[in-house]
Amino acid sequence: MPHYRLKEAAELLGVSDDTIRRWVDQGKLVVAHDAGGRQVIDGVQLAAYAHDLALAAPRPQPLPVVSESARNRFVGLVTHVLRDTVMAQVEIQAGPHRIVSLMSREAADDLALEPGVLAIAAVKSTNVVVEVPDHA
C-alpha cells in the first residue's frame, strides 16, 4: 500500500505543505511514520480525502452560451437513456433525425438526462462518413 510524505500529498492535492499539516492537526488526515521516521499519509486515506474535497468544492456555474463553434445543433427530445456503471448511451429524436451519444454516466447524471427532457445535440467532427445507397 503506497504512502506519501506530506510534501507529496500537498502536491497531489494542489495545496501547500502547511495546509496538509493543518489538516493533520485538525484530525482530517492521519499520519504514520516511515522507516526513516518521516511523517507519511496512507494512499487510500489520501485518495478518499481528495474525493471528498472534490465533492465539497463549489462548482462554478457556467455562463449562458451565446456563441459556439459547432454549426450542427439538433434540438430534440431525449427518448432513451441506457446507463451502466461508467458510461451512458443517450438517444435524442430531433425531427426526422435520431442521434445517439455515448458519454460518461457522470455527465448524463449531471445533465439529468431522462426520456422527455429537451436537449441539444451539438455535433462537431473532423470525420464524417458518407454513404451512397444502392440504386438497384
Summarize the topology.
Layout: E1 3-5, H1 6-13, H2 17-25, E2 31-33, E3 39-42, H3 43-56, E4 72-83, E5 87-94, E6 97-104, H4 105-110, E7 118-123
Antiparallel strand pairs: 1-3, 2-3, 4-5, 4-7, 5-6
CATH class of the largest domain: Mainly Alpha
What topology, given as strand order, has the largest sheet? 6-5-4-7
**Helix-strand sequence:** EHHEEHEEEHE
Helical residue percent band:
25-40%
Question: N- to C-terminal separation?
Answer: 66 Å
Secondary structural class: alpha+beta
CATH topology description of the largest domain: Multidrug-efflux Transporter Regulator, Chain: A, Domain 2
Range of strand content: 25-35%
Number of helices: 4
Provide the number of structural domains.
2
Largest sheet: 4 strands, antiparallel
Please tell me the overall pLDDT: 86
Looking at the overall shape, the CATH architecture of the largest domain is: Orthogonal Bundle
How many DSSP-defined strands?
7
What is the rounded Rg? 24 Å
Low-confidence stretches: none
What shape does the CA trace take?
A: elongated
